[in-house]
Every structure is written in structure tokens, then in C-alpha cells.
Amino acid sequence: MTRQIAFRMKIKPGAEQEYQKRHDEIWPELKSLLKNAGVVSYSIFLDRETSTLFAIQEVTGENGSQELGQEEIVQKWWSYMADIMDTNEDNSPVSIPLEKVFEL
Fold it and tell me: MF terms per GO, please (predicted)?
């Protein structure tokens, strides 16, 4: 059985195209890690007016991508993305969990 996880993040204004480009070219080893960790589906939506990203993951098990920070490839990805996103001191994206309030 899968469950959904949703969260929001922010990119720096003007970084929308670069963010899209980097995700269009996501590293195969990162994709493999996500799939192997139980991330069945992962979508990210951009609100261009606020530079806010809304992410939704379908996962099997307890954790989603946000709990893979100990993995070397994830740390490299965070460093790669840090110049265009709001990040924490360890380069992880500032990620705010969202509460599901409706589902059809």
C-alpha cells in the first residue's frame, strides 16, 4: 500500500528555468535510490508568482525522499541545488510538510 507525502520548498526568484533544467537531467543514480527507497511517484509543482515548490510523493513504507539525507548521492544533489534554493546549513532544502485536508 502506498501513502502520500506532501511538502513545500522555495527556489530563488529567477531560478525557475535552471531548476527545471536540473530536474530534466536528474542523475540516474539518484532516481534509482529514490525508487529503491520506496518512492513510487514524485511530482513537483511550481507557483511562479511566489517561487514556491509543492511536492507530492507516493511512498511505500515509512519514509520519503526527505529521510535519505545520509546518502552520499543525496548530499551531492543538495550541494548541486543549494545555489538556487532556500536551504538549511547542511544544504538540504528547507522543506515544510503539508497536511492533507481533502482527497477525492
Answer: L-rhamnose mutarotase activity
